[in-house]
Specification:
Layout: E1 4-7, E2 12-18, E3 23-28, E4 33-41, E5 52-60, E6 68-73, E7 79-83, E8 87-91, E9 97-101, E10 106-111, E11 124-128, E12 131-135, E13 141-146, E14 152-159, E15 162-175, E16 193-204, E17 210-215, E18 220-224, E19 230-233, E20 240-246, E21 251-256, E22 260-264, E23 275-277, E24 283-289, E25 295-300, E26 304-309, E27 312-321, E28 326-331, E29 337-342, E30 346-351
Antiparallel strand pairs: 1-30, 2-3, 3-4, 4-5, 6-7, 7-8, 8-9, 10-11, 11-12, 12-13, 14-15, 15-16, 16-17, 17-18, 18-19, 20-21, 21-22, 22-23, 24-25, 25-26, 26-27, 28-29, 29-30
């Protein structure tokens, strides 16, 4: 078992790996934000278990950022920090920041992936209450719209000019610089995906074709954005906390309140019966695919984190345990470390080969 790499005063709200480096941002419920980076190889008490010692390179004082709600980092080293007071700070690699203010707590932050660090197309999508904002890397507003059906809970970029917004009443698509377009060659507008439930998470497969939407009623809907065809998976209990495509789109993981189920994808449908891994007591973090897509991680309310391998999807392996609910999990860009945040303020770094 690896030791805690850092300890916040209050719950770890979110973590984000910054750029293509191995720097890790950690945000807490008390507003503290730390950026940790690996230093010289060591086997000391702050080792990550793989022989690397980590130290805090930057720290944002708590009085500058009330309770962190979300973190998001892009591949060029920019870090977006969202707070419960509605403020978003964009921090550049030199630790200078720009501030953007909204009216409601930040519920989701998503960068549009772009490989040009100076591209004018760098965009950050922000969900705050009923409002959706898209800003550039300098904090300038590109769009600001109100989601009429209720609060926005999650966001997903489908295309550089198309943003999916999920919340009360389903999913709405917002177009930038023209009509909303999908991945289909003809770029036809995508109709909204209406639902009586509250969307808790969205996930687009690695090919950009299938959008998976999980809601509070325990239903998961899979929409083929090319054809409009839709599948529905229900009977998952009171809520589906997250759904994630992994293993190159061959497997779909669904985390519900009391179980984690793995479905094998067929060309036109999902297999009739999934692999059900349970009872895993209330996964508190939706499943997270690795950078390479061969492993899955999920944390539960009892403080245990499980890793599931593509080759053995029916065998969850416990890799870490803390004395508090797991609040977030995130893989490093090189797929070698799993960052784990907990409600007691602990942050763990676990090498992928570790076993509890």
């Amino acid at each position: 078992m690896t030791n805690a790499t850092t300890q916040l005063a209050e719950s770890v709200r979110d973590v984000a790996w910054i750029g293509d480096t191995r720097s890790l941002a950690v945000g807490g419920a008390d507003g503290e934000v730390r950026v940790l980076s690996p230093t010289a190889t060591s086997a000391g008490p702050r080792s990550d278990g793989a022989g690397h010692e980590w130290e805090v390179r930057h720290s944002l004082p708590r009085d500058l950022t009330p309770a962190v709600s979300r973190l998001a980092a892009d591949i060029h080293g920019r870090l977006a920090i969202g707070s419960d007071c509605g403020t978003v700070r964009i921090v550049d690699p030199t630790w200078n920041w720009t501030e953007y203010r909204t009216r409601e707590p930040i519920s989701s932050l998503v960068w549009l992936r772009t490989f040009d660090p100076h591209a004018s197309g760098a965009r950050l999508a922000i969900a705050a209450g009923h409002d959706v904002h898209v800003i550039d890397a300098h904090g300038r507003t590109l769009i600001s719209e109100t989601y009429r059906r209720g609060s926005v809970t999650c966001l997903e970029w489908l295309h550089p000019n198309t943003l999916a917004t999920g919340g009360h009443g389903g999913v709405t698509f917002i177009g930038l610089n023209g009509p909303a377009t999908g991945p289909a060659p003809q770029h036809e507008p995508i109709p909204d995906l209406l639902s009586p439930g509250v969307v808790l998470s969205m996930h687009l497969d690695q090919h950009g074709n299938r959008l998976t939407v999980a809601d509070l009623r325990g239903e998961v809907r899979i929409t083929d954005l090319r054809t409009g065809d839709e599948l529905s998976v229900d009977g998952l209990g009171d809520r589906a906390r997250g759904a994630c495509w992994w293993a190159g789109g061959q497997l779909l993981a669904i985390a519900a309140d009391d179980e984690l189920s793995i479905w094998r994808s067929c060309p036109d449908d999902l297999e009739p019966e999934p692999i059900v891994l349970g009872p895993i007591p209330g996964p508190s973090a939706g499943p997270v695919a690795t950078h390479l897509g061969h492993r899955l991680a999920v944390g539960d309310q009892n403080g245990v984190v499980w890793i599931i391998e593509k080759a053995r999807p029916h065998v969850p392996v416990p890799v870490a345990s803390v004395d508090a609910e797991i609040t977030t999990v995130a893989w490093s860009p090189d797929d070698s470390l799993l960052a784990i945040g907990a409600a007691n303020g602990q942050l763990l770094l676990v090498p992928t080969h570790a076993r509890a």
